[in-house]
């Protein structure tokens, strides 16, 4: 990856970290999931509003490193308005991407693609995937699926 692209990706990650989208929580009987990464102390509290198989809204609170919090911000943006199945597929693509595996090209990944470089830092993969794992746990419980 070119240094210009690396710099762009770093700036996107820092923007989401410093100016998180969808920070907060939802009321009205929304799904809630609390997860943490004991390795580094990242914590997330995710709330999702799922109706008719569609993720209507997503918010998070928590604390952690820039990768973890930026990823949570990006994830909440990416899944809003998606069906549960679309969100689970996107989560799978994201997981493959940050592990440096070949992944199915999706429609434009948007800001999420900025986390592609995490694959070079195996210790940070759990940081990047924490919010995504929380979303998966929440929507799978909503669908009555096993994890």
UniProtKB/TrEMBL annotation:
Coiled coil segments of this chain: none
Domain NIF system FeS cluster assembly NifU N-terminal: 9-127
GO molecular function: iron ion binding; iron-sulfur cluster binding
Gene3D superfamilies: 3.90.1010.10
GO biological process terms, semicolon-separated: iron-sulfur cluster assembly
InterPro entries: NIF_FeS_clus_asmbl_NifU_N
Annotated family: Belongs to the NifU family.
Protein name: NifU family SUF system FeS assembly protein
Naturally occurring in which organism (per UniProt): Heyndrickxia coagulans
């Amino acid at each position: 990856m070119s240094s210009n692209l690396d710099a762009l990706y770093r700036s996107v990650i820092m923007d989401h970290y410093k100016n998180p989208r969808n920070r907060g929580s939802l009321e009205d009987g929304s799904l809630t999931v609390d997860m943490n990464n004991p390795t580094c102390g990242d914590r997330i509290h995710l709330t999702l509003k799922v109706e008719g198989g569609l993720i209507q809204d997503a918010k998070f609170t928590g604390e952690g490193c820039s990768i973890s919090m930026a990823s949570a911000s990006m994830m909440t943006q990416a899944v809003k308005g998606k069906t549960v199945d679309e969100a689970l597929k996107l989560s799978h693509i994201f997981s493959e991407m940050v592990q440096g595996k070949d992944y199915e090209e999706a429609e434009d990944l948007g800001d999420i693609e900025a986390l592609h470089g995490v694959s070079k830092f195996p210790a940070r993969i759990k940081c990047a995937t924490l919010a995504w794992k929380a979303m998966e746990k929440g929507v799978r419980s909503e669908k009555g699926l096993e994890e």
